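Regression test attached.
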Amino acid sequence: MNHSQDDLKRILVEELPRVRRFAFSLTGQKADADDLVQSLVLKLLQKGLPKDVSAVPWILRVCKNIWLDEIRSRDVRVKAVIENKIPNMDQDTAEGNQESAYTLEQVLVVLDQMNDEQRMIISLVIIEGYSYAETAEVLEIPQGTVMSRLSRARKKMLELIESKL
Amino acid sequence: MKQDDYDLLSQFIDDELDSERTLIVKRRLLAEPEFNHLYQQLKALSDNVKTAIPDFKNEPVSAELEALLKTECTTSTRSDSNWRRILPLAASVAVVCVMGYLLLGQPSPTGINLKGSMLSKLADDENWLSENGTEVVVVQSFLDENQSLCREYYAREAENVEHGLTCYQQGQWQKQVFAIKGNDSDKYYVTASSHYDGVEQYIAQEGLTPLTENDAMHLLQSLK
């Protein structure tokens, strides 16, 4: 049994910032993210949202599947407009004070170089604060896979930043 | 550094380690500068990733999307209805908080920090100590009218005991109502219920459906 259309719309309105963040982390561009969210909303309004599922993980899972279908049809993912290079880190920054060492642009550039699977996990765990178990449910993969992919993604991000120093 | 170190620190940062392995990591962080340095790098990276992604809370949506999401009563979101429902309660809490501040000088606008305890640890409903030394006991579990999992709990931290109701909404546990008492059990300085009788206090929330323990555990698993 599904939620009523009005209930579904209310859930979507309430969760819209989270869904848009997730979409942005997948697409790397606000315009693409909004297109993805619009496709998601259309699909959910057509197919409905079952009452016996956790709404947000379900919505994010549908979003993920739409995106994967989209990139398969495009063959290659549309790259973000962000310039594809990492600026040098501030040479004066103390080694132990890494928090101020990365600019937001650097982080976005590095994120853009992650593959789709890694970006989805980064988005759910790091940005949305989901547990590995919740993330595994959304992405329909084992919890151990979430852990290993995220760990490797973090390692790769650090290596990308450091390789440009 | 080995891949195992990345795995361990990644789980540590995400609060995914059990207490034993957390302790191991903390000891290594104190003893191994290289390990500590890697932790600082990974932690800073996570913090910056969070900051780099816009939160979209105030970003306008396209006219098409707005039209799609328009309902007969667009302004009545779940949060609004929740808020209207608990407004009288919230008002009474505010009044008593102010009174508590004036009388006892101990304002506690947010109460005891439960952190992620409700989601991550309480499936078995046993006493436990959270990372910050807070003892939490779940009394019972409910579904609210929006099918969100809610839990009535007692939490103890130092000399304070908090009795409250928290619901899993918008991806996190949000306290709906709570009450705190200090050392002197006769002097409740915050209450959240109109049923307050000077000795006992009750958690009042409309539209709650009690869950069996099995159902609550299933829901917790699905939220994890």
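Expected vs. actual: identical. Chain A touches chain B through 60 residues (CB under 8 Å).
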